[in-house]
Amino acid sequence: MTKTLGWIKKNDLLTAGLVMVLILLMISLIGPSVVDKDGVKVGYSMPDQRPGSKYLLGTDTTGRQLLPTVITGMPLTLKVGIIAGALGVAIGVILGFVSGFYGGFWDVLFRGAADVLLTVPVLLLLVVVASTLTTALTVNQEAILLAGLTWMGPTRIIRSQVLTMRERAYVEVARASGASGIKIIFLELMPNLMPYIAVTFVGAVAQAILASIGIEALGLGPQNEPTLGMTIYWSLYHGAVVRGLWWWWGPPIVVIVFLFIGLFLISAGLDKIANPRLRKST
After folding, report:
1. What Cα–Cα distance (Å) separates residue 202 from each residue in 9, 48, 85, 88?
2. Where are the beta strands (DSSP E) in 196-240?
3. Which end of the chain is more exposed for a tag (fewer CB within 10 A), N or C?
4. Nearest-angstrom CA–CA distance, 114 and 110
5. How far apart are CA 41 and CA 222, in angstroms?
6. DSSP 3-state assignment of 59?
7. Closest-CA residue to 87 (of 165, 141, 22, 160)
8. Would you place residue 3 in the very low, low, confident or very high pLDDT band (cuts 50, 70, 90)?
9. Using N-to-C axis directions, what is the helix angle for 66-102 and 228-237, rounded to 10°?
């Protein structure tokens, strides 16, 4: 454990990215219990108040305080990304291992499905699906919907890695010793692919958050939840940009940018572990 932590400290990109994301996670966990929970209610405060000593981030046109709204929305947005990313990667890992290791019919089926769906614009498909629903999406429903549209990339990545590893000597030795395919996958292939799976997970979380913000900014997200994307949507709906209410749309955008920079740094740091060329150069 100590050796692992020491290695992480040497990886500047990974360390910086983890610190940034952990800061947001800590704020998401502690923040809602510190701020005024009633501040997210419509009509609770004076509308259109600039940031000041009374309202640190100001209020919006509906009378919601922006500080508790943003802090309450952060864990909701992170929840969507983590659930969607985890489910999407789990599906992708299973299909990628089956497709790459066993080949044949399963390879044709799963690879073909991934290739076909990758040609469809995810945001457009999300807009079509969300707009056809009779009720507004909840946070959990949005996460599951996104997971069903983010497994294709992980499937292709894992499949390509399995194809390069299944003919290696240690896999042939395991086969010769009578090990089953499932045992080879779990004991021989998966441990070696953990860095790739970690990189894929971070990318899937970022993709899911970006897609969720996209559909929420169009007004198709959870209407009664103050996610960061829905906060941006309501600011656009009430013309905050034209009216100069920068404190309405500015803070959620800053948080989103901060989060994506952190995820990018984590991904770049993990890539140093997964990519042999980068690992040798450090």
Report:
1. 19, 37, 8, 11
2. none
3. N
4. 6
5. 15
6. strand
7. 141
8. very low
9. 120
Cα separations in angstroms, 173 against 160, 179, 184, 191: 21, 9, 10, 17
Beta bridge partners of 59: 65
User: Closest Cα partner for 221 from 92, 126, 107, 152?
Assistant: 126
d(CA 131, CA 128): 5
pLDDT in tens, 19-33: 999 999 999 989 888
CA 40 to CA 282: how far, in whole Å? 47
Which band of pLDDT confidence, cut at 50, 70 and 90, is reported for residue 217? confident
pLDDT score, position 277: 59
Reading the block at residue 117, the tokens are: 């769906």
Count CB-CB contacts under 10 A for residue 150: 23
CA distance 147 to 83: 8
Structure tokens at 189: 């292939």
Cβ(213)–Cβ(228) under 8 Å?
yes
Question: Three-class SS of residue 168?
Answer: coil
Q: Is the pLDDT of residue 10 over 80?
A: no
pTM of the model: 0.86
